[in-house]
Amino acid sequence: MEWPSQSPDINLIEHLWEELERCVSGIGARNADQKFSQLQTAWAQIPKSVLTNLPRRCQAGIDSLGFAD
Question: Whole-model pTM?
Fold first, then answer.
């Protein structure tokens, strides 16, 4: 499958995961429960505007038909 050379990055979930990873990187956890708690705290700190803008950003990616503007 061929992709446009300048296709937009519309994988918004990956962006959210990267933000969470940045928030908890360098913070040690002794077990999975501690790490889960850290992730929940980090998730709560993501600005609501980021989450409410997701549908608009998805639509912009769809409207671009896979090509950069």
Answer: 0.59
